[in-house]
């Protein structure tokens, strides 16, 4: 087979050989040019150096004359500078002059300069010794002769270097001219050869390839009956034509590969509809599914919106990696119950959604919501902690609560928002009235946030007295919202809202700072108790922040008592225990508030090592009427005493209650009998005056405690 490639390869080899030959000649010529130019540069540098030497010897001569005329430090320094410069330039000239016919002349100049310097030193010494006549003689005779001889040598050497520079410059010019002429000649030959090769390639290669390309285009358009010409050729073109027949056979294989590509694209599309972290369907997938669900109103369905509770503290306390672990664990639980739950999607953050076929009866949706609450509320193990989250679930029914995806999602979202006002494991069905409630609650959120920032929520002080004798020992700090339009708002209205929107801890810090400012002049024997919510005890930094505030205002930590409810003990046992331990290590006492009404056990009293328990006010009702509360209260006091705990009774409103508690050994008491919560000014007056009348009944006066100056 005649090989076009071989022919072209031969031409390429010939062209390459010519190219390399010419390139070698050109490179050789350029090398010679470069060497000549380098030599020329060196010769010019030598000429410059010799001329510099001649100038410096003249300047040195002038410096000698200056020294003779004015023997001073400046003249001596100038002569020394000129001498050093001349020595340095001669050294440079020696370095520039290679071994050869001119090197001896340079060496002789260097030796003559050394002799010249010695004579110069004698002249300087004579001047220094005050022999001006001797110095002048040396200057006019020996130094004059040496200077003239040195100057003649410099001129002769400069002439030689100039001649060399002219010769090397001429050589470089001739070499460059040769290279230029040669390159131009070879370029003309190359242009002619290129033209001839183009004609050959066009006739033997390009034109046949154009024909093959047209045939390929027809084949790609599905014309399998296309006629391919050139198959009879015994070269590469013929081989290409014959290969096209094989291409027809491979068309079916290409089609199959295309189908596999479409499948891969479908897999990528599925990935685009699923959450990368949890593997659950994402919002896009869920919205598309809702579109299919709402397309047929004859098939009822339920949509559930899920928002996790206590998830933000997990991120804040343990980091976002821990939050990812929680979300992944919940996703695995959802997928394990997919048959009961239907389709569960992660919409973003800690928000999930569920859709499943359901009857118009609410019971099926309620059962699914209850199952979700159970699944979510189970403890989740992290690397070094166990956390528990809850969920608020809103339920919307199709088509009753909405006929479009957007309407159903909004209805479920509003129901979920309403569910957030309840406890853990709660769910709510959509009710049109919810929207009004949600708007009102949103306004409440904004109002509370503004009130915290504006300082409208202030501390009130309720007296705490010693049961034995009625001595004032401290106050419980109570929050009151002085609303610009509604007056005094009680804490049960705004504290849950502040906790929900995440500003409760900031409010606690602000209240404590205000307490510290207001009690600066109060007796140091008085104590103050503040309340911490369960959510605040999940913050490991709260103890150090509270102590920092006390330190800033110079309030001893021993004067502060933190009260927690029994419910706080079951939310996060480990973290709560660590926080309370840090508080006690810093001198802050810890009291268990509302004892007997929550979930505390004897084990909690042992594990947490409280300083005080506070008996809830509900147990003080009916103490004079032989109720069971009497036995319960006495048992609580006995239990506290056996554990070496201080006992405070809340809600004392009658003298008889006070008398009973005194007889049973209760330590402290608070309630309306001793005083309601009051502003700082009234509390200050109470400290100064001691007793007062309440309800028209005389009672023992509170002992007056002197104010600090």
List descriptors.
flat, eight-stranded mixed barrel, EAL_dom, HAMP_dom, 709 residues, disordered C terminus, 21 helices, EAL domain-containing protein, Nucleotide_cyclase, alpha/beta
Strand order of the largest sheet: 8-9-11-12-13-14-15-16
How many DSSP E strands?
16
Mean pLDDT: 84
Tell me the Rg in angstroms: 52 Å
Task: Describe the model.
InterPro entries: Biofilm_reg_signaling, EAL_dom, EAL_sf, GGDEF_dom, HAMP_dom, Nucleotide_cyclase, Rev_trsase/Diguanyl_cyclase. This is EAL domain-containing protein. It comes from Sphingomonas echinoides. It holds the Pfam family HAMP. The chain is of the alpha/beta class. The protein is about 60% helix and about 15% strand. It contains 21 helices and 16 strands. Strands 8-9-11-12-13-14-15-16 form an eight-stranded mixed barrel, surrounded by five helices. Strands 2-3-1-6-7 form a five-stranded mixed beta sheet, sandwiched between helices. It has a two-stranded antiparallel ribbon with strand order 4-5. Helix 1 packs antiparallel against helix 2, helix 2 (about 75-95) runs antiparallel to helix 3 and helix 4 (about 130-140) packs across helix 5. The radius of gyration is 52 Å and the shape is flat. Residues about 690-709 have low confidence and may be disordered.
Can you lay out the helices and strands and say which pair or pack?
Elements lengths: L3 H66 L3 H24 L6 H26 L3 H9 L1 H79 L15 H36 L11 H11 L7 E9 L1 H8 L1 H17 L1 H4 L1 E6 L2 E7 L4 H16 L2 E2 L4 E2 L2 E9 L6 H15 L6 E4 L2 H23 L2 E10 L5 E12 L3 E3 L1 H10 L3 H15 L8 E5 L10 H12 L6 E6 L7 H13 L3 E7 L6 H7 L3 E4 L13 H14 L3 E4 L5 H10 L3 E2 L10 H10 L20
Parallel strand pairs: 6-7, 9-11, 11-12, 12-13, 13-14, 14-15, 15-16
Antiparallel strand pairs: 1-3, 1-6, 2-3, 4-5, 8-9, 8-16, 9-10
Helix pairs in contact: 1-2, 1-5, 2-3, 3-4, 3-5, 4-5, 5-6, 8-9, 12-13, 15-16, 16-17
């Amino acid at each position: 087979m005649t090989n076009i490639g071989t022919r072209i390869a031969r031409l390429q080899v010939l062209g390459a050989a010519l190219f390399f030959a010419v390139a070698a000649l050109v490179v050789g010529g350029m090398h010679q040019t470069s060497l000549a130019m380098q030599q020329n540069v060196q010769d010019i540098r030598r000429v410059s150096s010799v001329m510099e030497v001649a100038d410096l010897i003249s300047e040195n001569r002038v410096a000698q004359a200056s020294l003779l005329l004015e023997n001073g430090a400046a003249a001596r320094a100038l002569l020394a500078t000129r001498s050093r410069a001349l020595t340095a330039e001669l050294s440079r000239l020696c370095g520039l002059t290679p071994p050869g016919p001119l090197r001896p002349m340079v060496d002789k100049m260097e030796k003559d300069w050394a002799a010249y310097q010695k004579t110069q030193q004698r002249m300087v010494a004579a001047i220094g010794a005050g022999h001006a006549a001797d110095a002048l003689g040396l200057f006019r005779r020996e130094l004059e002769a040496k200077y003239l001889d040195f100057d003649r040598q410099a001129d002769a050497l400069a002439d030689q270097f100039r001649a060399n520079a002219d010769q090397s410059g001429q050589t470089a010019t001739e070499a460059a001219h040769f290279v230029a002429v040669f390159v131009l000649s070879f370029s003309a030959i190359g242009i002619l050869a290129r033209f001839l090769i183009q004609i050959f390639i066009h006739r033997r290669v390009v034109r046949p390839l154009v024909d093959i390309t047209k045939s390929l285009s027809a084949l790609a358009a599905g014309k399998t009956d296309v006629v391919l010409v050139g198959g009879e050729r015994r070269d590469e073109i013929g081989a290409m034509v014959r290969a096209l027949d094989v291409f027809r056979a491979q068309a079916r294989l290409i089609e199959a590969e295309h189908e596999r590509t479409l499948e891969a694209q479908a897999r990528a599309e599925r990935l685009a509809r699923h959450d990368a972290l949890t593997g659950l369907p994402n919002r896009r997938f869920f919205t598309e599914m809702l579109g299919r669900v709402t397309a047929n109103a004859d098939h009822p369905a339920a949509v559930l919106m899920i928002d996790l509770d206590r998830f933000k503290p997990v991120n804040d306390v343990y980091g976002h990696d821990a939050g990812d672990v929680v979300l992944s664990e919940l996703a695995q639980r959802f997928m394990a119950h997919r048959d009961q739950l239907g389709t569960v999607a992660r919409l973003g953050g800690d928000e999930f959604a569920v859709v499943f076929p359901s009857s118009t009866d609410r019971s099926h949706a309620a059962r699914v919501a209850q199952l979700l609450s159970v699944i979510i509320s189970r403890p989740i193990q992290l690397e070094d902690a166990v956390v528990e989250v809850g969920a608020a679930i809103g339920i919307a029914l199709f088509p009753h609560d909405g006929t479009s995806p957007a309407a159903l999602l909004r209805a479920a979202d509003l129901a979920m928002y309403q569910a957030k006002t309840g406890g853990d494991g709660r769910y709510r069905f959509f009710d049109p009235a919810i929207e009004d409630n949600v708007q009102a609650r949103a306004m409440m959120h904004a109002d509370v946030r503004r009130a915290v920032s504006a300082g409208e929520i202030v501390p009130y002080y309720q007296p705490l007295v010693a049961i034995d004798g009625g001595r004032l020992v401290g106050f419980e700090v109570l929050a009151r919202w002085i609303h610009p339009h509604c007056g005094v708002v009680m804490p049960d209205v705004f504290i849950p809202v502040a906790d929900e929107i995440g500003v409760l801890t900031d409010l606690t810090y602000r209240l404590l700072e205000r307490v510290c400012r207001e009690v600066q002049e109060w007796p140091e024997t008085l104590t103050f108790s503040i309340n911490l919510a369960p959510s605040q005890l999940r913050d490991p930094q709260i103890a150090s922040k509270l102590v920092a505030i006390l330190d800033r205002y110079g309030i001893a930590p021993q004067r502060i008592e933190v009260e927690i409810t029994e419910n706080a003990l079951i939310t996060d046992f480990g973290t709560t225990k660590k926080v309370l331990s840090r508080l006690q290590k810093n001198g802050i006492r810890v009291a268990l508030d509302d004892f007997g009404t929550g979930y505390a056990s004897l084990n909690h009293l042992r594990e947490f090592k409280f300083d005080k328990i506070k008996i809830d006010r509900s147990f003080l009702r009916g103490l004079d009427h032989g109720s069971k509360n009497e036995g319960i209260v006495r048992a609580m006091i006995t239990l506290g005493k056996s554990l070496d705990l201080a006992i405070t009774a809340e809600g004392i409103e009658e003298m008889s209650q006070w008398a009973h508690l005194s007889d049973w050994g209760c330590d402290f008491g608070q309630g309306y009998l001793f005083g309601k919560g009051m502003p700082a000014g009234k509390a200050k007056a109470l400290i100064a005056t001691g007793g007062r009348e309440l309800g028209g009944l005389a009672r023992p006066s509170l002992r007056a405690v002197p104010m600090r100056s």
